[in-house]
Write a structure and sequence with these properties.
5-stranded antiparallel beta sheet; Beta-Lactamase; 5 domains; 8-stranded mixed barrel; CBS-domain; globular; 43% helix; 33 strands; alpha/beta; disordered N terminus; 855 residues
Length: 855
C-alpha cells in the first residue's frame, strides 16, 4: 500500500509537487490544435496545458486526439481552445500522491495539472510519474502480470485505416491496439505490431484517409509472459522506457497489453482498501458522524471545499464554513431545508431527473451545475454527490462536496473570446473568419449573388522581425491591419488568419476583374512606407489570391483552399514579374496539389507493388583499387516505368511519417543482398545504408529495431555501416551520442555523411562514436580549382587520419581528383570514375573480376 510514511521506505512529506516534472508543456488558447500537437510531438509529451494569465484553463492529451474526426485537416487548423478538455482537473502541489491517485480515479483522467495557492500553473503529474515513484512494491511483488493486464484490448488487422482505428480505440477506451496480419513466416516479434496513442500523435499531422495501421505500427514488439512477476514487468517498463508491453499466455497467444494505466489501477485498488475512502463507501465514517455530530463537524469544518450533508429525505443536516463562504448562507439558515434553496433555475427538470437517476443507479454523481448565492448572484460549481448506505444497503445520507468554479467560467469566456479574436490586431481570427464566411455564403446562396474572398500574405515578413525585432514587427502588422480595414471599407470582413496572413470577404463584388482591381488598389496602399516608432521607414510587398463563390467553390473550406492556392500562385509570380502580385484561382492549381497527393498515395503502395528497389555504388580502396564495400541507394520506378528521384520522394516520405517503414525495408533488403553475396563467396564486402534523423525518434529505439533485423536475417553487424548526416546533431547532442553508442555497441560501423556541409563542429567529431567520415562531393569538385580548391579536402583527410577515422571521398569523377585524393592519403574512393550505382548482379561481376586480377 502507498502511505506517506517511513514505514514503506518513502520520505515523510512527499507531495505531487516533488513528483511532477520541472517543466510543463503549455500554449495559449489561440494556438491552433496543429501547433499544440507539433509541440507535443517535439517534446515527446503526452499532453499540453492551455493557459491564460498563467492559469490553466484546459488540456489536450494524446487520448483526446483519438476523438478527432476522420478528416483531421480542418480540426488541426482550429484554435486549441475549441478542442481542449475543460475545465482542467487540478491538484495542489502540496497534495499527497495518494490523493492524486484517488482524484485520477474519480475524474477518470490520466493527468492532473498541479497549481499553487493562487491557482497558477506549476506543473503536471501523470500516471507515469506516480508509477515511477511508488515506494511500496508489495502489491507488485506479490502478483503476476496476469493479475493486472487489461484484456479488453483492441485487436485489428494491419489494413484497417488509421482514422477508423483511432475511433475504435476511443470508443473502447483503450490507449493501444495490437496489429496483426503481417507475413506469417516472420519471427513472432515481427508478426505482431502495436499502435499507441503516442503513435497516433506522431502521425496525426500527416494522416490521410488511406493511411493504414500497418503503415505506422511499431515492430518488433516487446512480449512478456502472463506469469512474469508484476514488479519485474514494472522495472522493465521503466528501464527500457516502454509504456506498453504485449502479454502472451502459456500457449504464446496474445491476451492483452500491460500499460502504466493498468499498474496505477492495480496499486490504486490496493491503496483504497487501506484508505476506505469516503468516495467509495462513505457509509462507515458518515454513520459514525451521524451518531456523533461533533465528530462530523470536526471532519468537515476544515475542508477547503464546500461540504453539505443531507439525510435520506434530502434535508440539510450539516454544512462547513467553506459552504457559508461560497453561498453566503449561515448554517442555521439552511439546516432542515433542502438544497433547492441554492437552485438557480438554469438547469431543466430533465437535468435533475437524470442526476437523481444516476445517483440511484451508481451511488454517485459528478458534474458542473449553476447555483445561486444568498446575494442572488448565480455562480458555477463543480459538484460531487455520494450516497451513504448502512450495513443493509439503505441510503442514510447524501454527502455533497462542491467547489466554486465561477472564476474558471470567467476564464472560459475569456478563452472563447481569445479563441475567436486575434489578440494583436483585434480582428477576427481564422476560426471566426470561417464562421463568418459560412454565414455570408449562406446569404449569397439564398439571394443568388456571387461573392469573392481574398487571401493576403506579406512577402518575407520574417526579415522585418529579424532586422527590427518582433515588437516593431507587431507594430507594423497592426498598421497593415488598419490599412486593409480602411481600404476595403465596412462592407468587407477582414481577419488575421496567420502570422503575416490576412483574409477578407468581399460580399458585393460581382466580377473577378472587380476583385482584382480592389486587390491591386490595396497592394498599392500597402506599398507605401510604414513608419516605426523610431521613425524608420519599412517597405512591404504582399501577394493576394482571389477565389469566387459559386464559380470556384460552393462551400467554406473549399473556397478558402482555392484562395490559398491562388495566393501561392501569386507568390510564384513575384519571382518572375516582381512584387505585389495578384493570383486568380483556376482548376490547374488544384491539379498540382492533386499531383502532390497522388505522389503520397503512390509512395504508400510502392513497397507492396515492389516498385522500390536498391542499387549499389561500389567503394574502392584508394591504394589497391579493390572493392571494399558498397553503398545501398534507394530508387523508385513506378508501374508505368517512370523514375522518381530520391530527392523528390524521400522528403515526401519524411513529411508523411513513413520514412521509418521505408528505412526498415531498405535495411532488410540490403541484409538479404549481403547474404546473397556471401553465398557467392564475397565474404568481406561491407554495406552502407543511409538513415534519416526521423528513424532515431520513432516509437521504438532504432538500435533495437536494427538488432532485431540483424537477428532475423542472420547478418554479422560488422558487415553493416549506418550513414547519418550532420543534421542529426541539431537536436539534443547528448541524447544522440547515447543513441549512436547503442548502435556502435551492436558492432555496426557509423559513418558521418556529407561532412562539412552542415553542423561541422570539430569537438563533436572528436567525441561522437564515428568510424567513417565521408568527404562531400562539393569538396571533391573544388579540387578542379587548383591548389586552393584542394586545400580543404586535404585538410579533412588529414584530420580524419589524426582522429583514427576512415575517410571516404564521394563524387570522384576524373583522374585528377583521384590522384590528389590518393596522394593526400584518402582511404576509400566512391564515384562515377570507378563505378556508378548498379544492380546487385553487376556488383558481383565487378568484385569477382577484381579478385581474379589480384589473385
Amino acid at each position: 500500500m502507498i502511505r506517506p510514511s517511513s514505514s514503506d521506505g518513502r520520505p515523510f512529506g512527499l507531495t505531487v509537487g516533488t513528483l511532477s516534472p520541472g517543466t510543463v508543456l503549455s500554449c495559449d488558447p489561440q494556438a491552433t490544435l496543429g501547433e499544440a500537437i507539433a509541440k507535443m510531438r517535439r517534446a515527446n509529451s503526452s499532453s499540453v496545458v492551455i493557459v491564460v494569465a498563467n492559469k490553466p484553463v484546459g488540456i489536450v492529451t494524446e487520448h483526446d486526439l483519438l476523438s478527432l474526426p476522420a478528416t483531421t485537416a480542418a480540426a488541426l487548423s482550429e484554435p486549441v481552445a475549441t478542442q481542449m478538455s475543460a475545465p482542467v482537473h487540478t491538484i495542489s502541489v502540496h497534495a499527497t500522491p495518494q490523493s492524486a491517485i484517488v482524484r485520477m480515479r474519480d475524474r477518470g483522467v490520466r493527468h492532473l495539472v498541479t497549481i499553487d495557492a493562487d491557482g497558477c500553473l506549476v506543473g503536471i503529474i501523470s500516471q507515469t510519474d506516480l508509477i515511477r515513484h511508488v515506494g511500496d512494491k508489495k502489491p507488485f511483488i506479490a502478483n503476476d502480470v496476469a493479475d493486472a493486464v487489461r484484456q479488453s484490448t483492441v485487436f485489428a488487422h494491419k489494413d484497417i485505416r488509421v482514422w477508423e482505428l483511432r475511433q475504435r480505440m476511443h470508443s473502447e477506451k483503450c490507449d493501444s491496439a495490437i496489429i496483426s496480419g503481417f507475413a506469417e513466416d516472420l519471427p513472432a516479434e515481427l508478426k505482431t505490431g502495436i499502435i499507441t496513442e503516442r503513435d497516433i500523435l506522431r502521425h496525426l499531422a500527416t494522416e490521410h484517409e488511406n493511411l493504414t495501421a500497418g503503415d505506422i505500427a511499431t515492430r518488433p514488439v516487446k512480449f512478456i509472459r502472463q506469469d512474469m512477476n508484476l514488479d519485474d514487468a514494472r522495472n522493465m517498463m521503466m528501464r527500457d522506457n516502454f509504456r506498453h508491453l504485449v502479454v502472451h499466455n502459456h500457449h504464446d497467444e496474445t491476451i492483452g497489453v500491460l500499460s502504466f494505466a493498468d499498474l496505477l489501477e492495480f496499486i490504486e485498488q490496493d491503496y483504497l482498501v487501506h484508505l476506505s475512502s469516503l468516495a467509495e463507501d462513505g457509509g462507515s465514517e458518515l454513520t459514525k458522524a451521524r451518531q456523533s455530530l461533533a465528530l462530523a463537524n470536526k471532519l468537515i469544518e476544515n475542508s477547503p471545499d464546500c461540504v453539505m450533508i443531507c439525510n435520506a429525505q434530502s434535508e440539510i443536516e450539516a454544512v462547513n464554513p467553506a459552504f457559508t463562504r461560497v453561498t453566503g448562507y449561515q448554517a442555521e439558515e439552511v439546516i432542515g431545508k433542502t438544497p433547492s434553496i441554492l437552485k438557480s433555475g438554469r438547469q431543466s427538470k430533465e437535468f435533475y431527473d437524470k442526476l437523481w437517476a444516476d445517483l440511484a443507479r451508481t451511488g454517485k454523481w459528478e458534474g458542473e451545475i449553476w447555483n445561486r448565492r444568498k446575494s442572488g448572484e448565480i455562480y458555477a460549481e463543480w459538484l460531487s454527490i455520494m450516497a451513504v448506505r448502512d450495513g443493509e444497503g439503505n441510503v442514510t445520507h447524501y454527502a455533497s462536496i462542491f467547489t466554486d468554479i465561477s472564476g474558471r467560467e470567467k476564464n472560459r469566456e475569456d478563452v472563447l473570446r481569445i479563441a475567436f479574436t486575434d489578440e494583436l490586431t483585434g480582428m477576427p481570427n481564422r476560426r471566426r473568419f470561417s464562421e463568418l464566411l459560412s454565414l455570408h455564403i449562406g446569404r449569397a446562396r439564398r439571394v443568388g449573388r456571387p461573392l469573392s474572398i481574398a487571401m493576403l500574405d506579406i512577402d518575407n515578413f520574417q526579415r522585418v522581425n529579424n532586422a527590427l525585432g518582433h515588437s516593431t514587427g507587431d507594430d507594423v502588422l497592426v498598421e497593415v491591419a488598419r490599412r486593409i480595414s480602411r481600404e476595403l471599407g465596412h462592407d468587407a470582413v477582414v481577419a488575421r488568419v496567420g502570422a503575416d496572413e490576412f483574409a477578407a470577404i468581399l460580399p458585393h463584388v460581382k466580377t473577378e476583374q472587380e476583385a482584382v482591381n480592389i486587390a491591386e488598389k490595396l497592394l498599392s496602399r500597402l506599398d507605401e512606407a510604414h513608419q516605426t516608432r523610431k521613425g524608420e521607414d519599412v517597405y512591404l510587398s504582399a501577394s493576394v489570391g482571389i477565389a469566387s463563390f459559386p464559380e470556384d467553390a460552393n462551400d467554406t473550406s473549399n473556397i478558402i483552399r482555392c484562395a490559398e492556392l491562388a495566393m501561392a500562385q501569386a507568390k510564384e509570380k513575384t519571382k518572375e514579374q516582381g512584387r505585389n502580385r495578384v493570383g486568380l484561382y483556376s482548376v490547374n492549381l488544384h491539379s498540382q496539389k492533386g499531383a502532390d497527393l497522388a505522389l503520397e498515395t503512390a509512395l504508400r503502395r510502392a513497397i507492396d507493388n515492389q516498385e522500390l528497389h536498391l542499387v549499389y555504388q561500389p567503394q574502392f580502396d584508394a591504394k589497391t583499387g579493390d572493392i571494399t564495400g558498397v553503398e545501398a541507394l534507394l530508387r523508385w520506378t513506378t508501374a508505368e516505368g517512370k523514375t522518381i528521384p530520391p530527392s523528390t520522394f524521400v522528403p515526401v516520405a519524411e513529411e508523411m511519417g513513413v520514412i521509418g517503414e521505408l528505412g526498415r525495408w531498405v535495411i532488410r533488403t540490403a541484409c538479404d543482398q549481403l547474404i546473397a553475396w556471401r553465398q557467392e563467396g564475397l565474404f568481406n564486402l561491407g554495406l552502407a545504408v543511409n538513415v534519416s534523423v526521423q528513424q532515431f525518434y520513432g516509437s521504438m529505439d532504432f538500435a533495437d529495431q536494427l538488432r532485431a533485423i540483424l537477428v532475423e536475417k542472420g547478418v554479422a553487424a560488422e558487415r553493416l555501416e549506418i550513414e547519418v548526416t550532420e543534421s542529426l546533431f541539431m537536436r539534443n547532442i547528448d541524447d544522440m551520442r547515447t543513441k549512436l553508442q547503442r548502435l556502435r555497441n551492436l558492432g555496426v560501423r557509423i559513418a558521418l555523411d556529407d561532412f562539412g556541409t552542415g553542423f561541422s563542429s570539430l569537438s563533436y567529431l572528436r567525441t561522437l562514436p564515428f568510424d567513417v567520415i565521408k568527404l562531400d562531393r562539393s569538396f571533391v569538385r573544388d579540387i578542379e580549382d587548383g591548389p586552393d580548391g584542394a586545400t580543404l579536402p586535404i585538410t579533412i583527410i588529414n584530420m580524419a587520419r589524426n582522429l583514427g577515422k576512415t575517410c571516404v571521398a564521394e563524387g570522384v569523377e576524373n583522374e585528377k581528383q583521384l590522384e590528389v585524393l590518393r596522394n593526400a592519403g584518402c582511404d576509400l574512393i566512391q564515384g562515377y570514375l570507378l563505378g556508378q550505382p548498379m544492380p546487385a548482379s553487376q556488383v558481383s561481376e565487378l568484385a569477382k573480376a577484381k579478385n581474379a586480377r589480384t589473385s
